[in-house]
Amino acid sequence: MIDLCRFDDIPEGEARGFEVGEQAVLIIRRQGQLYAYHNHCPHRGIRLEWQPDQFLDYEKQYIQCATHGALFTIEQGECIAGPCPGEQLDPVRVCTEGDRILISL
Ligand code: FES
Q: In terms of pTM, does the model score above 0.85?
């Protein structure tokens, strides 16, 4: 497991991006749960965000790809709108240990 950050480094309802070696991941904290995905859109295989840490739509209900606007559910990473419906973000295993967030790639 890779020690990524403190739990409180991700505010409730927000997302944060991380670089882990060559890989980019995003973590979302929602209602106390953590959801983690590789940072690449299944539509074109590019990063989801244009601005640092801007992974969510305006209402913070979905993960949104900045390039063509695909929307993905936070819990499952499933595309429900945009150019790649039914495709999935690639999940990353995430857990907590004390006040730390750990992932495994
Ligand atoms: S690259 Fe993400 S929707 Fe097209």
A: yes
The CATH number assigned to the domain holding 20 equals 2.102.10.10
Q: How confident is the model at residue 16 (pLDDT cuts 50, 70, 90)?
A: very high
94/71 Cα distance (integer angstroms): 22
Do the Cβ atoms of 35 and 27 come closer than 8 Å? yes
Mutate to test the pocket of ligand 1, among 68, 78, 79 (most ligand atoms within 8 A of CB): 68
Residue nearest to atom 3 of ligand 1 (CA): 68
Q: What is the CA radius of gyration of the chain?
A: 13
Q: Pick from 26, 39, 41, 63 the residue to mutate for probing ligand 1's pocket: most ligand atoms within 8 Å of its CB.
A: 41
Which residues form the domain of 22?
A: 2-104
